[in-house]
Amino acid sequence: MPIQILMPALSPTMTEGNLAKWLKKEGDSVKSGDILAEIETDKATMEFEAVDEGRLGKILVPAGTQGVAVNQPIAVLLEEGEDDSALANLKTPAAAPAAAPVTTPAPAAPAPVQAAALAAKGERVFATPLAKRIAKDRGIDLNSLKGSGPHGRIVKADVEGAKPAAAAPAPAATPAIAPAAVPAIGPAYTEVPLSSMRKVIARRLTEAKQTIPHFYLTVDYKLDKLLALRADLNGRTPEVKLSVNDFIIRACALALRKVPGANASFTETAIRLYSEVDISVAVATPAGLITPVIKHADQKGLATISAEMKALGQKAKDGKLKPEEYQGGSFSISNLGMFGVKDFAAVINPPQGCILAVGAGEQRPVVVDGALAVATVMSCTLSVDHRVVDGAIGAEFLQALRGLIEDPLTMLL
């Protein structure tokens, strides 16, 4: 019997995805492990591997389709010995979403009676997340629709097909009420549709600021010795080019090992103290911010951290990060120093307890042994979840970080 290939859940937050590209075409043979398609998730563009073997009999969802619900059939795989005739009697719930949108209101006519009966009985109206979103945006009552999906579930095509019916009364009234002569208030603008990643960023950061009691600790660090050591090491090993950020990642990892209370997160029943130091590093991409993770950072040297960070940063910008490369992490770093930002306060990346915001190193007047001098100074602000980390622990972490940054040779021990 033909095998249905379903839209996979490629990340914990994914409820729908965009089918960017098919890498197999109808009629191609498929082996387990073959790459079938590229799927755009809420975090990155990922390759979708085949699990079963056979021949790709029919593609149900074409390339370029957006908002395909998780577990919706996207293609049909024919097993060995099956030919195209096996598709003739195949009843697949994906046929409705894949078809062209209905443009006449007639098929929706009997739906209100059935939906009203369901509503009267208090039964739940089932619809895909995409169908619910479209219905909400267009002001369509899902109770008035009859679903063509599996078990009567309302899908995208059902909602789009209801659009003419919902808009039917409008033509008669529109000429009388349309304020055509009223100029728009405010400057001209262009709307950029939200990417899946941007939607997740908006939701998670809103939750972070609304639910996490942030407090902030700021410390200035002298960078002169670190910059001198960096220049010396880069001169000795031309194939390795260490950045200031590589030193900061290494220093944070070692400081967390010294102050494990800052390597923690909050749960509803306990404070979770992590036994491993995995540093999430914020990377800006065209689609939004993402935080690839340097795992076991306290056990890695500067050269290893530098190489991994360069590779992960490039994969992040290309949208090719794997879930295991950006999920998890016990502590975050956000560095805007390369943009000349002096200091800032970052939003905590839940469920982590802390994030360090790193500013630019700049020459400032300082007092050394009672005399005025000039030093390269960098301001760092630690954003802390007060449910997890108290002020004393946060200060202890920043003190441990000072010892490593201002005496960077200790990082090499």
Describe it for me?
This protein has helices at 85-88, 95-98, 111-121, 129-138, 156-161, 163-167, 170-177, 196-211, 224-236, 244-258, 302-318, 323-326, 391-406, and strands at residues 3-6, 16-22, 29-30, 35-40, 45-49, 54-59, 65-69, 73-78, 214-222, 264-266, 271-273, 279-281, 283-285, 288-290, 293-294, 331-335, 354-368, 371-385. It has 413 residues and is of the alpha+beta class. The chain has 3 domains: 3-98, RNA polymerase II/Efflux pump adaptor protein, barrel-sandwich hybrid domain (OB fold (Dihydrolipoamide Acetyltransferase, E2P), Beta Barrel); 106-170, Irregular (Dihydrolipoamide Transferase); 196-412, Chloramphenicol Acetyltransferase (2-Layer Sandwich), CATH 3.30.559.10. A 6-stranded mixed sheet has the order 9-18-17-16-12-15.
**Tally of helical runs:** 13
CATH 2nd-level architecture of the largest domain = 2-Layer Sandwich
Q: Output the strand order for the largest sheet.
A: 9-18-17-16-12-15
Q: What share of residues is helical?
A: 25-40%
Strand-residue fraction?
15-25%
CATH superfamily of the largest domain: Chloramphenicol acetyltransferase-like domain
Would you tell me the structural class of the helices and strands? alpha+beta
Question: Could you list some keywords that capture this structure?
Answer:
single chain; 413 residues; alpha+beta; OB fold (Dihydrolipoamide Acetyltransferase, E2P); Dihydrolipoamide Transferase; Chloramphenicol Acetyltransferase; 6-stranded mixed beta sheet; 4-stranded antiparallel beta sheet; 18 strands
